Fold this sequence. Notes:
The protein is of the alpha+beta class. It has three helices and six strands. It has helices spanning 10-34, 96-109, 157-166, and strands at 41-53, 61-70, 83-90, 115-120, 140-141, 149-150. The radius of gyration is 26 Å and the shape is globular. The model is unreliable at 26-36 (pLDDT under 50).
Amino acid sequence: MKTTFLSIGQPLARLGNFVSLLCAAALLGVAASGARASDPYGIYAFVDRVVLEPSDAAPERIQVWGGFALSTNRNNYEYRDAERGYLYFKLRAGDEEICKKEWADLKAVAGTGQIVTFGSRRDKTPVSVRKADAKPENPDTYPQSWGITKVRPRDYGPVNQLNKLQGKKSDAPAPTPKSKNS
Length: 182
């Protein structure tokens, strides 16, 4: 004897699966179109030169000369206009060795024209671009970072501005020669 089951509700179950699939597709479409990737970096830069103080062997402070586009706190992809000058940092307490490694990386890209990123926009430590004629005093604390990242050429606001800025002659003064007695 053959048993037959009634399929009460089966058409509704099939329709329920279709509705779930349709809702998931619509949600994915809305999320994909409305999502905008955030930019986590605090600083885009090209580095002309680096000065470590008081010495290369035992740095406590760094002057990073070049062009810089600093992130704003308004949103996750906005930067201030790129400008030339220098950043002046001191070691971040508790992360001295990490800072020194990143400073060595900045020194390695100095003068190459390579655009890099460092610092995090989540780190609220104030950073200021100093004018070439400003005396190096009261250094900012070096910002937390994921390391120095080389930026591949792309059409992006801060990168475009830095590329244009690199075409200008540097207003950075030549480093002062060290005396033999110091």
